[in-house]
Write a structure and sequence with these properties.
By secondary structure, the chain is of the alpha+beta class. The protein has a domain of 95 residues: Rossmann fold. The chain is built from 4 helices and 4 strands. The longest helix has 24 residues. It is globular and about 50 Å long. The two termini are 26 Å apart.
């Protein structure tokens, strides 16, 4: 059984003891945080053998053009492959990552209503398969993906 509690606190100074968690999961949080400070704090509260799972927005390559066209504003720091590489070289024990949404990113510009969504589903699924093949054949395209899933296990 899980016990959930909601807290309003700083991501840089969590009110938890060192090594108290088996899992830390975030989604689209690093874009508004100092990567180094946040990661150090999340790492601090993980138990040895615990997992840090990050689902983050990417910001390299063509995504800069896409965000300009979509009218994205704000002082966000989107994750780049260089940021992910730095994670691999930091104190994190082992970092695995996979990038998603290369061609499928274009569909987020379309209107979001049920009629459009219904006919898009098979197209987006097919493009997802094309994305996978392209990313496997041309790893450099990962810079242009919209989402990265990053998993690290504390040693």
């Amino acid at each position: 059984m899980f016990r959930l509690q909601y807290l309003n606190c700083s991501a840089y100074k969590l009110p938890f003891t060192d090594g108290g968690f088996d899992l830390v999961f975030t989604k689209s949080v690093l874009v508004v945080l100092n990567h180094g400070l946040a990661l150090a704090e999340w790492w601090r509260i993980l138990k040895p053998g615990g997992h840090l799972v990050l689902i983050e927005n990417m910001g390299g390559g063509l995504l800069q053009i896409y965000r300009a066209l979509a009218g994205s504003r704000g002082s966000y720091h989107y994750l780049t492959r260089n940021d992910i590489e730095r994670l691999s070289l930091s104190e994190l024990a082992k970092v695995e990552h996979k990038e998603f949404h290369l061609l499928t990113t274009a569909f987020s510009l379309l209107p979001d209503h049920e009629g459009v969504q219904r006919w898009l589903v098979p197209i987006v699924r097919a493009l997802g398969r094309v994305d996978s093949c392209l990313l496997k054949a041309f790893p450099g395209l990962r810079d242009n993906c919209y989402i990265a899933a990053i998993v690290s296990t504390k040693g």
